[in-house]
Amino acid sequence: MDYLDFILAAQKLGEPRGIPSICSAHLFVLKATFRHGLAQNTPVLVEATCNQVNQFGGYTGMTPADFVTYVHGIAAQANYPLDRLILGGDHLGPNVWQNEPTASAMQKSVKMVQAYVRAGFTKIHLDASMSLSDDPPGGLPPELIAKRTAQLAKAAEEAAPDKNRLRYVIGTEVPVPGGAFVGQETEGMHITLPEDVEQTIGMTRRFFNEQGLEAAWQRVMAVVVQPGVEFGDDFVLEFHPDLASSLSKYIEAEPHLIYEAHSTDYQTRQSLHNMVRGHFAILKVGPALTFSLREAVFALANIEKELFQADQCSNLPQVLNDAALRRPEYWMKYYRGTSEEQAFKRKYSLSDRIRYYWSDPMVQKAFGHLLNNFGNTPLPLTLLSQYLPGQYAHIRGGCLQNNAHDILMDRVMDVLEDYENACSIQ
C-alpha cells in the first residue's frame, strides 16, 4: 500500500495520521529532511512547485527530471531508501503563464504536468484556479476551474508510466504559489465553507467523468482548503479547531478524501496536532524550514566575526542582501515600506523571500567560504550558547556533533520534529 493510501485509510479509521510535505529545493533542508526521515524511519514527501520547477527550468533552473535527479542524489548520499521517497508536484497548472491566453497557457500547463509524471512524480496537485489573459475580469467560475483541472488530469493519465501510482490533489484556497501579496495575508481570509468543498468535489468529479477519467477520480485523495492558517512578515494566524470544526466534520462523510493544508509554517506543535486530528493530514511546509536555516547561518556568521579577521570572513548576510538587490523581482512586490523597512524584511521576514537567492553563484561561494572557515573544528561553547542556544543544549546533551555542518542540519530538524510529532498516531 502506498503511504499516502495508508494515511487516508488511517484517517478514515479515526487514527490521526499525517505527513509533512517538504516544499524546498535547498540542499541543506533536503539533507536534514532525509537525515531526519532515516532516524525516524518515516517516509519523506518532497514537493516542487510550478514556478520553482517546470519544463523551462523555473526559478531553480531545474526541469522536473532534473529535480528528480537532484533529490535522488541527496537521498542516496544520506543512505535514505528511494522506495520510501514520495515526490509531489504542487500547484501544477497555468499559474506561471497567467499573462498568456488560454490556448497557450493550458498547452504549456499540459506539457508541464506530463513532464512531472514522466519524471516520476506521483502526488499531483492540479490547480487551474487562476485567470488567464483572455478570461473575463473577476474570479473564474468554478465550472471552468473544474473543467481545466480535468483537462490536466487527462494529460497526466496519458503520460504516466504507471497511472495507478498517481494520487491527485484538487482545489485551492491559498495564496498563489510564492506567497501572498502585501495586504492579502489577512484581507479576505476565511475558513473554507463545507458547501464550497462539496461544490469543488462535485464539479471536478463531473468533469473527470466527462473526460472518461472515472478510474483517475478514484485516485483523487485530497482537497486543498483554507483551515484558517496563514503567516505574514511578522505574524502567524494560528489554527483554531473549533472554527474549522464544520469543515473537519464534512470530510468524514467522504470515504476517499482528506484535506491538504498549505501555509502551515510556524504553527505550534499543538496546532499541528490539532490540524492532523481535524483531517488536515497533508501539511505543507517550506519557508519555516529555510527561515530556520537562515537564522542558523546568520548566527554562524556572527560567530565567524568573533573568530576571524574581517578580511577572512564570508560576509554571507551582506552577500545574500546584495543578491536580492540585484534581482528584486522575488521580494519587491511583497515587501513594502521605506528602504530601511524593506532591508529589515529581506533579512527577517517570516515570508523568507531571501530563500530565492540561495542558488545565486555569489551566495553559494560565500556559503562555501563560511563552512570552510569552520571546517570540522568544534565551535566555542560560549559562542554557541550566545548565538545558538538550542544547538548548544543539544551538543551538551550529547545529541549533536559540534561542527557547523551538523549545527545547520539540526536547526532544520528542530522544525521537522514538530511535524513528525504531530503526524504520528497519538
Description:
Helices cover 47% and strands 11% of the residues. With 426 residues, it is α/β, with parallel strands linked by helices. It folds into 2 domains: 3-287, TIM Barrel (Alpha-Beta Barrel), CATH 3.20.20.70; 291-418, GI Alpha 1, domain 2-like. The protein has an 8-stranded parallel β-barrel with strand order 1-2-3-4-5-6-9-10, surrounded by 9 helices. Helix 5 crosses helix 6 (194-210), helix 11 packs antiparallel against helix 13 and helix 14 packs across helix 15.
Short note summarizing the structure:
With 426 residues, this protein is of the alpha/beta class. Helix content is 47%, strand content 11%.
Order of helices and strands: HEHEHEHEHEHHEEEHEHEHHHHHHH
How much strand content do the residues show?
A: 5-15%
Strand order of the largest sheet: 1-2-3-4-5-6-9-10
> Into which percent range does the helicity of residues fall?
40-55%
Biggest beta sheet attributes: 8 strands, parallel, barrel
The whole-number mean of residue pLDDT values reads 95
